[in-house]
């Protein structure tokens, strides 16, 4: 047995208002005046001074607003890298991603693809990346995905939805400023928060569980319960705690795996473009058989906050479309092995998955 030797985020700042330190933090990383920092910012912040008035742009630095309406694609990463290469004569000093999971993942992928040949789709998988990425910084503005702490960047490519998992993927620097999550719409807050909750359940109920993952998973779950089920927290405390829950949930799955909800949610994402957080909710509604306590707790949270979950999204799909989703879900073997055990192929049949998708 050989244990994995995981890299972690090398530096992290936590605190309300810590975003103000971004300029001081990145300044020493500027290679020269013609090697820009590229700021990838969620376009919901266009014209919003919370972010735009505080960006430490200098020299040839470039601000790129990116839509997070759709999940990140390998072709999108390739286009962004090409634009950066065309627009700047020097390789950038760094990539700063400011937004939710989509922007985090794009920042990580662009930083990798600036130093590695070929297309992003060539690197979907585990440990294919050869060269270290350029310096990259993550500033989450919504909490739950764990993308700020993870060793992957999940991309939809022409053939699959799969992460670039590598030692070069984690951020060199993360800035956790809970104040930045203030404007998140309630439904989005819930869907993304539930991504964290599902990470906890899938990690804690998985066969890969170990003391490392358990310690992070239990803490994140405790925070999620306080945030989503109890009424004891102020808005500020709730924002602070959800940011730390996201971090711990991400750490929990680093040394284990996610499970059934994620495998099936990737199928919905690939075929129907359903975004990850809401996709996890749609799937989790129907997973009592695998996670009875987790699903009960999830439903209590959903009811308490009166959140709408779409239904019937698979009702008009044909057999070939179900097959595509089932293929995507089944291809994620480590997730099933974690969720069910080594004999998962005997238990998780195509018919079983089709019956579950038909309920959604
Ligand atoms: Fe997730």
What is the compact description of this entry?
The chain has helices spanning 22-26, 49-52, 74-87, 101-113, 186-204, 211-229, 235-254, 260-272, 276-284, 292-304, 319-330, 333-340, 344-347, 350-359, and strands at residues 11-14, 37-42, 62-66, 94-99, 125-126, 136-140, 154-156, 161-165, 173-176. It has 360 residues and is an alpha/beta fold.
Key attributes of the depicted protein:
360 residues, alpha/beta, three-stranded mixed beta sheet, 9 strands, binds fe (ii) ion
Q: Report the oligomer.
A: single chain
Coarse structural class: alpha/beta
Write down the overall geometry: globular
Q: Level of helix content?
A: 40-55%
Distance linking N and C termini: 40 Å
**Bound ligand species:** fe (ii) ion
Q: What is the N-to-C order of secondary-structure elements (H for helix, E for strand)?
A: EHEHEHEHEEEEEHHHHHHHHHH
pLDDT averaged residue by residue: 96
